[in-house]
Amino acid sequence: MLTFRNTNIFFASLLIFLIAINFHAHISVWLYIISVFIYSLVLFYGSYFIEAGFYIRSVCSAKINKKAIAITFDDGPSEKFTSKILEVLKENNVQASFFCIGNRIKENENLLKKIHHEGHIIGNHSYSHHFWFDLFSAKKMLDDMQSTDIEVKKNIGLSPKLFRPPYGVTNPNVKKAILKGEYSSVGWNVRSMDTVAKDKNKLLQKLKTSIKPGAIILFHDTCNITLDILPEFIQFVKAEGYEITRLDKMCNLQAYA
Length: 257
Description:
Blueprint: H1 4-22, H2 29-48, E1 68-74, H3 82-91, E2 97-100, H4 109-117, E3 121-124, H5 138-156, E4 162-163, H6 172-180, E5 184-185, E6 190-191, H7 200-210, E7 216-220, H8 224-239, E8 243-244, H9 247-251
Parallel strand pairs: 1-2, 1-7, 1-8, 2-3, 4-5, 6-7
Helix pairs in contact: 1-2, 5-6, 7-8
């Protein structure tokens, strides 16, 4: 498996080999430049594709044979959309997971409580969801994450143990913060791209062809297009014989401390 550790071992060995060879025969500087470039590409891949498990293993699907999937939402609570999404879920008897941004909880405390009271789970999606979150120190990341825990616990009496990194980006500092905070890192294997999608029919068709047993679907409860397609998506999944189950149950995870 490609990981940060074995990648570093490989490229360090390669560098030592090139230096050793250079003592006996001149090696073009381009070999070093190309090696650094490839190394950078591997790090980019590992950082931006959470499914790779490059820095830390993240739960991105469930290894099951039965037809079951989990639906998750990021970036709420949203005053405009979350309550309507909850209505759709309730009408269809579906439980989901909401990875909430801490600084959006204060103005939407009743929504957070409603999410919890209706049987959904609440995950940690950082407090700030800062654009440069992945460049924070591990300590600053953990402080940010724990600020969300405080807001959640203040409202429902429980602290989330499931953490989804902002933008799905991981790196050594994210790993340190997750481990120190004793969280479980959660990703996805079906990314709806609902935040950028313009055509709801194309989005719905894409999702229909992506469904497979154990899938974790990533939506955002901040988008009108998500609200538009959600009822039909749920109906399609059920018609295909799938059960929509809660993330913690499907993946055998501890949702709260």
